[in-house]
Amino acid sequence: MAASHVRAQRPADGRTTAGAPPRPPARGPGRLSRAGVVTLLVLLAVDGALVVADMGHRFARLQGRFTAFADGRWDSQYDGSAAEIAGYVQVALTVLVLLVLVRRLRDPVLAAWAVLLSVVVVDDAAALHERLGFALAGAVDLPAVAGLRAGDLGELLVWAGYGGVLGLVVLVFHLRSDGPARATSLQLAGALVLLMAAGAGVDMLHQLLEGSVPDRVGYALGLLESTGELVGMSLLLVVAVHRWATTRPHTGERVRRGGPQQVVTAAPRP
Q1: Which stretches of the chain drop beneath a pLDDT of 70?
Q2: How far apart are CA 150 and CA 148, in angstroms?
Q3: Where is the chain membrane-spanning (predicted)?
C-alpha cells in the first residue's frame, strides 16, 4: 500500500510550510508593486498635462497666447472640463478594480468602498449635493455662517449626511477585516481625505475669499483645488491597482480565506 503524507498549502501571510514549494512573498503595504508604480507615473503625467493645459487656457484667455488651449474645456473650474472627466474615469476604474477584488477576495470592506466611491462620482456628476443643499437651505431657512452662503452650508450638511452613513458602513467592515484588507482600506481613506480636502476645503476657502483677493490668488486657489482632486483620485486608482497586482493567483496571497488548506498527496513507493 502506498504511503501518504500531508502537505499544507502556503498560508495567507506568505510563509511556506513544510513540503510546499517556495513562492515569492507577498509585498507589504509599504512597497508599491510594479503595476502600482506604472499606474502612479502614468496618472501623474496625465494630471500634470491637465494642469499645464489649465494654465495654458488662462494665458489664452488673458493674453491671447497658447491659443490651442483657448477652448473652455481646458478650464478645470467648469463642469464638463477635461480635468473633471479624467477624474470621473479614474474613480470609475477604481470602482471596477475594487469589484474585481471583491469577487476574488470576498472582502466586504472593499465592496463598501466601491459603493462609497460610486456615490461620490454620481453625486458630483449630477450635482446632487448642490441641488439638495440649496433645497435644504430654502426648506429650513439656513443662515449664512462665517461668510458661507446658506446654500453652501446646506451642501456641507448634505455631504455630512452622506459621509456619516457611508463612512459608518465602511468603518464597521474595516474593523471586521483582516490585516491586508485594513491596510488597503486605510490607503483608500488617505486618498479620499486628500480628495475631500481639495474638493470641499479649498473650494470653500476659494468662495470665502472670492472678490476680496487679487485675481491671481483666486486662480491659484482654483488650480490648487483641481490639482488636489486629480491627485486624490489618481491615488485611489493606484491603491486599487496595487492591491489587485499583489493578490493575483501566482503570488499566493489570500487565495482562499480561512487559513491554510490541507491537501493529501501520495508519496512515491520505496
Answers
A1: 1-30, 146-147, 248-270
A2: 6
A3: 32-53, 85-102, 109-128, 156-174, 186-205, 217-241
**Which domain range does residue 144 map to?**
90-256
| CA proximity to 109, closest of 168, 196, 160, 164 | 168
In a domain, 121, yes or no: yes
CA distances from 82 to 40, 48, 109, 175, 265 (A): 19, 12, 31, 38, 58
Per the structure, the count of domains in the chain is 1
Indicate whether 187 belongs to any domain.
Answer: yes
Q: Is residue 38 part of a domain?
A: no
| pTM of structure | 0.76
Mean pLDDT of all residues belonging to the chain? 80
What's the pLDDT tens digit per position in 110-151? 999 999 999 988 988 887 777 777 787 777 777 777 667 777
Residue 33 lies in a domain: no
Beta-carbon contacts of residue 104 (< 8 Å; ≥ 6 apart): 247
Alpha carbon 186 to its chain centroid, in Å, reads 11
How many whole angstroms separate alpha carbon 104 and alpha carbon 247? 9
79 exposed, middle or buried (CB, 10 Å; 0-12, 13-18, 19+)?
Answer: exposed
Q: Do 5 and 267 meet the contact criterion of CB atoms below 8 Å apart?
A: yes
